[in-house]
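Hi P.,

Sorry for the delay on this. The queue was packed all week, but I finally got your sequence through. Input first:
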Amino acid sequence: MNNKPAIDEQLEEQITEYLQQHPDYLTRHPDLLIELEVQHNSGAAVSLIEHKIKLLQKKSVTYHKQLENLIDVARENEELHHQLHRLTLTLLKARSEDDVRTILVEELGSRFKADAVALRLFSAAELESKSDASASAIFGDFLQADSPTCGELGGGKLRSLFADQLGETGSAALIPIRTSHLSGVLAIGSKDIQRFPPGKGVEFLTSLGELVSLTLQAVGSEEHG
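Then the structure:
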């Protein structure tokens, strides 16, 4: 049989309102902090102070995890910018489109631990031509969006980009490339479908795309100058 008195909801509202208007009430009456009890999920009653300590401990753990995540992201961003700087210095040595391809395959493969790297470039005529319908169908929407994207790839896109380097499934970062005469995609692929999840490193990929586009523009001018 439950001998607890019935709850007076109106009185509870008045008490709650009073405490909200006088948040220092318990500070002025510290003995109540010990006398008041809070029912724990386990059924045991603990003092208000103990309950507050447990809540603060839980918050502390949550904040600590959030801080660790922020530190990890900061370290990753710092490492990515360092790698981009190294790649920039190496690309400065390129004198032809073939040089750019070779550098990208070697540098992105080793420094960014990619299983496959591909650079597909098309002239405006090739994208519009029926003779290159496969390129237009596969990359047309991506090039029109003009924004890096990451995610799982399969089937036609995977084979078109990497041939048989990744097998039947994988993930990739796709980066739009543009010069005054060419449009294309720089693809960094992995056999791991979780390696390049959607939304990963968009700012970095955008910077990488700009770097490669400017390099190709420069070597193209030299080759045709």
